[in-house]
Design goal:
The complex is a heterodimer of chains A (about 475) and B (about 300). Chain A is of the alpha+beta class. Chain A folds into three domains: about 40-230, no CATH class; about 235-330, no CATH class; about 370-475, Immunoglobulins (Immunoglobulin-like). Chain A is about 40% helix and about 20% strand. Chain A contains 17 helices and 18 strands. Chain A has helices at about 40-55, 90-110, 115, 120-135, 140-145, 150-180, 185-190, 195-215, 220-225, 225-230, 245-250, 260-265, 275-280, 300-310, 325-330, 330-335, 340-365, and strands spanning about 20, 25, 60, 65, 70, 75-80, 80-85, 240-245, 320, 370-375, 380, 390-400, 405-410, 415-420, 425, 430-440, 450-460, 465-475. In chain A, the strands form five sheets. In chain A, strands 10, 11, 12, 14 and 16 form a five-stranded antiparallel sheet that branches. In chain A, strands 15-13-17-18 form a four-stranded antiparallel sheet, with no helix packed on it. Chain A has a three-stranded antiparallel sheet with strand order 5-6-7, with no helix packed on it. In chain A, α6 packs across α8 (about 195-215). The longest helix of chain A has 27 residues, at about 150-180. The radius of gyration of chain A is 33 Å and the shape is elongated. Residues about 1-10 of chain A have low confidence and may be disordered. Chain B is mainly α. Chain B folds into three domains: about 5-80, no CATH class; about 100-180 and about 275-295, Orthogonal Bundle (Cytochrome Bc1 Complex, Chain D, domain 2), CATH 1.10.760; about 185-275, Cytochrome c-like domain (Cytochrome Bc1 Complex, Chain D, domain 2), CATH 1.10.760.10. Chain B has a two-stranded antiparallel ribbon. The longest helix of chain B is centred in the middle third of the chain and has 24 residues, at about 95-120. The radius of gyration of chain B is 36 Å and the shape is elongated. The chains are: A alpha+beta (about 475), B mainly alpha (about 300). The interface between A and B is large, with 38 and 36 residues.
Chain lengths: ~475, ~300
């Protein structure tokens, strides 16, 4: 980007070498040309994959309920067979750590793979661009349309495009809210105009965010807002795959006739067709080297390969390669050998470890929670015949979707008996606080605190047991 | 903000806030165009660490708009919400007001449920699982602090699960106890009873009433002086619901078991207070709570 400098007009008092400039630059609208090829096919595959999951998942049913539902009001998170509660937050932490490490790993190996192929910003921009192209045509047609005067065709096309964009944004917002409120009811509510204020707000807000980000902000989000773009260069090294222009082969660039003999022209392979610039969604020229705006989408590589094919030169003037690979002229097999370097191995090992730990812990998780809270005021009391009683509150939570008949067993002191009810049940995904009175005969233990153990056993179809330690207090005489 | 005697600080804070916001806007405007000596290579001329040069690129225009939007947002926010000193804002929002609104909304939400409970008798409530669940949480939040989570009380806090009542255990009496609270007073009676020896004898007599371990000779000697206690505890020591005099003939000892505890009660008297709950709970809540407490001593057969 260059300074939008303007010569100083009327102010004659200024020093002759000084000029007045604006500190703020207008945005140059980018009209990416559509492209086809290997990387583009992969990007579209990722668009389909991510969006089928995103739009389809909330409609899936499981156990007579939505398979994936984050019920914020009830504070329950349903994931197929799993019901998670706020105290299972550690799993979310684990998921975020896994995501971060996966990002590090992919970045170390292949640069901004996430940015160019799976990031929602890229995916929705791709979809919105496709709709734009559908209505207004490709790059040159769009530029011509924008520069044309007030014609009926222009307004018709613009309106149609807006309608498509808005409809898609609203559908996205609706789907998003469908993850937090049962989507089938939400669908009915939309048609019966019975949406709640927050449901309406989030559908509109998320819809607007999709529309604004994918329709208008586009590369601005990647260049100025995305935090990931800021620190990912820390994961790059000389063996990271990046989109690169092979300057040694391409320079000096220049136009030439197809019949011309390359060896006589003293020209490189680059025919200076500028297609790589036209297809770039962030509007950069890859031939200037690696730049922070490059999201690694490979569009320039795709289009350059086509041009190379047409002019009869070998492909790969712009390609995914590593800095080492480019400088040493390595083959892809040689580059692959450098993939397994300590940084990648370390990321991979930690990623594997945490992933295994998370899933093991999820598998071993007992869907029954027990907390034993000693009564806050009654430390200990002596009742008739000198029996000593302690009071506890059991907080229990049933994380399964079946009713759980339960039995309480307490042990740890001679003659200990529970004089409140010991058999009770917990409703499906229900929680309950239960007061429990534990009694021991007079003089059966020394004064002071004694460890005792609470055990709640499920008598249901799936036997499970949760244990919790507490203490029993014998008063001093 | 009643901590200050004058409004000076209100105006100071409000003025400073407003001036700061507007100064931000002024700075943006002032710095939007500058006069510089241009460099040929589009850098500022600064070089760090030998080879790091600073490019001189303009800020994107959207950033300016974002800046202006934040200023507008701040002003609108300050107009709607209490941000400028003592100005309460056009929405008249306050955290206390929000608390009250949320509480009122919650009460309106549960009102139909309590409305239905109000039509039921205490006995019917005791048989209603939903009422008992609500009663349980009311008890845990308001009563368990003294009477323990299992309602069996402790020293000086009565057990609510037995049949022994100090102020009466029928639904009406329980409701009055919860609503108005209770103050039970036994004056120090050592002088009225007589010498320390007499007090000891009366204590043994009191223990004998329920068949608790006692010295029968002393008990017999103390019988005459028990006359002092009859006014409240009755001739047979069975107590009196009207003034909250406990029954001395059961083996339940609210203020401690044994001779020493009884002697201390006679010598020092007793002052036992249950605070009224109608300041915290509504009449309908107390009705449900009464059902829960009644059910504790009258468990379903």
């Amino acid at each position: 980007m260059s300074n939008s400098t303007q010569p100083d007009g009327g102010n004659s008092a200024a020093r002759p070498d000084e000029i007045e400039i604006s500190l703020y630059a207008d945005r140059q609208k980018i009209y990416p040309r559509s492209v086809a090829g290997f990387f583009t096919n992969w990007r579209w595959a990722m668009v389909w994959l991510t969006q089928i999951v995103f739009y389809g998942l909330p409609w899936l049913q499981w156990n007579n309920r939505q398979a994936v539902l984050f019920d914020l009001e009830e504070r329950r998170f349903y994931l197929f067979n799993l019901v998670l509660y706020p105290h299972d937050l550690i799993y979310l932490t684990g998921l975020l750590v896994i995501s971060a490490l996966a990002l590090f790993l992919f970045t170390a190996v292949a640069g901004r793979l996430w940015c160019g192929f799976a990031c929602p910003q890229t995916v929705y921009t791709e979809i919105y661009l496709w709709m734009e192209k559908l209505v207004e045509g490709d790059r040159t047609a769009r530029m011509r349309l924008d520069q044309s005067g007030h014609t009926l065709e222009k307004y018709g096309k613009k309106t149609l495009k807006q309608l498509l964009w808005i409809a898609f944004g609203l559908w996205t917002g609706f789907t998003f809210v469908g993850y937090f409120t049962p989507i089938e009811q939400l669908w009915l509510a939309v048609w019966q105009a019975e949406l709640g204020p927050w449901q309406s707000f989030w559908i509109l807000f998320y819809g607007f965010a999709t529309y604004g980000n994918a329709g208008y902000m586009r590369e601005l989000v990647c260049k100025h807002m995305c935090p990931y773009a800021r620190f990912q260069s820390a994961m790059f090294d000389r063996d990271t795959l990046v989109v690169t222009y092979d300057a040694q082969r391409g320079e000096p660039r220049g136009r030439r006739s197809r019949q011309a003999d390359l060896s006589l022209l003293k020209l490189g392979s680059c025919v200076d067709c500028s297609l790589c610039v036209q297809v770039c969604p962030t509007g950069i020229d890859i031939r200037k080297g690696l730049q922070y705006e490059c999201i690694g989408c490979g569009s320039c590589a795709d289009v350059c390969d086509q041009v190379m094919d047409k002019v009869g030169y070998p492909k790969g003037l712009v390609r995914f390669t590593t800095q080492n690979g480019l400088e040493q002229g390595w083959t892809s097999a040689q580059m692959w050998r450098r993939v397994l370097r300590p940084r990648v191995l370390a990321y991979g090992a930690i990623l594997l470890l945490i992933t295994v730990a998370l899933f093991t812990s999820l598998y071993l998780r007992t869907p029954l929670k027990l907390d034993v809270i000693r009564d806050s005021t009654i430390l200990s009391r002596v009742v008739q015949q000198g029996y000593v009683e302690n009071v506890y509150t059991l907080r229990m939570l049933n994380a399964t979707e079946q009713e759980q008949p339960l039995r309480l067993v307490v042990h740890g002191l001679p003659g200990l008996q529970v004089i409140s009810e010991t058999e009770f049940s917990l409703a499906p995904t229900g929680a309950r606080a239960l007061a429990v009175t534990v009694r021991v005969p007079p003089g059966s233990s020394a004064p002071g605190m004694h460890p005792i153990h609470f055990e709640v056993q499920s008598l249901g179809a799936e036997p499970m047991t949760v244990r919790q330690d507490s203490v029993f207090m014998m008063p001093r005489q | 903000m009643s901590d200050f005697t004058s409004y000076f600080w209100h105006y100071y804070v409000a003025g400073l806030t407003l001036i700061s916001i507007l100064a931000c806007l002024g700075l943006l405007w002032y710095a939007s165009r500058v006069k510089v000596t241009p460099t040929k290579d589009n850098t500022t001329g600064h070089v760090w660490d030998e080879d790091i040069i600073e490019k001189d690129n303009p800020l994107p225009k959207w950033w300016v708009w974002m800046f202006i939007i934040t200023v507008v947002f701040a002003l609108v926010y300050g107009l709607l919400y209490p941000m400028f000193g003592k100005f309460p804002g056009l929405l008249n929002w306050s955290s206390v007001g929000q608390y009250q609104a949320e509480r009122a909304a919650n009460e309106a939400r549960v009102a139909p449920k309590f409305e239905a409970f109000a039509q039921m008798s205490v006995q019917q409530l005791a048989a209603d699982p939903v009422a008992m669940q609500i009663g349980e949480s009311l008890f845990m939040n308001n009563c368990a602090v003294c009477h323990a989570a299992d309602a069996r009380g402790s020293l000086t806090f009565p057990n609510l699960t037995d049949k022994d009542w100090i102020w009466g255990g029928d639904p009406e009496a329980i409701k009055v106890s919860i609503t108005q609270g209770r103050v039970a007073v036994m004056p120090p009676l050592a002088e009225a009873v007589g010498s320390p020896e007499d007090v000891l004898n009366v204590a043994h007599y009191v223990l004998s009433l329920s068949g608790a371990p006692h010295d029968s000779v002393r008990a017999a000697a103390g019988k005459a002086n028990f006359a002092t206690c009859i006014a409240c505890h009755g001739a047979e020591g069975k107590g009196n619901y009207l003034i909250g005099a406990p029954n001395l003939t059961d083996d339940i000892w609210l203020h401690g078991f044994g001779v020493d505890a009884v002697v201390r009660s006679i010598n020092e008297g007793i002052m036992n207070v249950m605070p009224p709950q109608n300041v915290l709970l509504s009449e309908q809540q107390i009705h449900v709570l009464t059902g829960y407490v009644w059910a504790k001593s009258n468990p379903p057969q």
